[in-house]
Design goal:
mainly alpha; Endonuclease Iii, domain 2; Endonuclease III, domain 1; two-stranded antiparallel ribbon; flat
Length: about 270
């Protein structure tokens, strides 16, 4: 988000501090300071997002550098240029076959207008942007929510599928298990219209917990649906292993009983 003016900062604080846990978290974390990134055209932003999927930052950046070098001296290709690029060249840059299919789909949908240009994107509301951009192969809701928050500076985005946001909520509110995305979404209604700020504070809760500076959670914790760890499969596997061990032990005992009399006769 762009830097908030003092009046907007007061509104954020007034809204979020109605929640006593969030009020303590704000006191510990300090003023809201989510920094927006360089604003890029939607096609470029989503191309970069696809490149970074399931890779560390250094590897993804190298792939992007080789990709952009294919179109030098143009800083970044247009959708049609990507569509005209041979698959072998994209493979040579380091993209997997799956990512090449995603990139070509992005280019087609950008050329057809499903993925809008920046002026149209800025006029759309959050839900419309999510609906349009998630039509692209390999682009999910979380990716679009990060674009909404960090590039467009939208103030009311709550990425409930984000692990850090959910873990921050678990830590700050004293839950034993992670909240479900739907449960967190329902709870987060109280933070409207500043849910982006609430998400930022939940990310900070994880940092504060690591630094042992997170306020002690209030009791009792909120009644929010949680996802309990799935321990059923490991328990079944353990029981199956124990049964096998027991059978082998019984078999060994029977063999031992048969061998013992023979040794005695010798």
């Amino acid at each position: 988000m762009p830097k908030l003016n003092p009046q907007a900062s007061r509104r954020v604080r007034a809204t979020l501090t109605r929640d006593p846990v969030m009020a303590r978290l704000i006191a510990a974390a300090g003023p809201f300071a989510l920094e927006t990134r360089q604003q890029r055209p939607p096609f470029e932003s989503l191309t970069r997002a696809i490149a970074y999927q399931q890779l560390n930052g250094t590897a993804a950046q190298r792939i992007l550098e080789r990709f952009c070098a294919l179109y030098a001296p143009t800083p970044f290709p247009q959708p049609q240029a990507l569509l005209d690029t041979p698959e072998s060249s994209l493979r040579g840059a380091g993209f997997s076959f799956a990512k090449i299919r995603a990139l070509r789909d992005l280019a087609k949908k950008s050329a057809s207008g499903i993925v809008p240009e920046t002026p149209e994107l800025l006029r759309l509301d959050d839900d419309a942007i999510v609906e349009r951009l998630t039509q692209v192969r390999g682009i999910g809701r979380w990716t679009v929510e990060m674009l909404l928050m960090f590039q467009l500076g939208r103030p009311d985005v709550l990425p409930v599928d984000d692990f850090g946001v959910r873990n921050g909520f678990r830590l700050a509110y004293g839950l034993r298990h992670m909240p479900t995305p739907r449960g967190l979404l329902a709870f987060g209604e109280r933070w409207r219209p500043w849910r982006s700020a609430a998400a930022w504070y939940l990310w900070r809760a994880v940092d504060l917990a690591r630094e042992q500076k997170l306020p002690v959670p209030l009791k009792p914790p909120p009644r929010v649906p949680v996802q309990k760890p799935r321990a059923v499969a490991p328990v079944k596997a353990m029981k199956k292993t124990l049964r096998k061990v027991a059978r082998l032990r019984r078999k060994l005992q029977r063999v031992t009983k048969k061998v013992a009399p023979r040794r005695a006769r010798r």
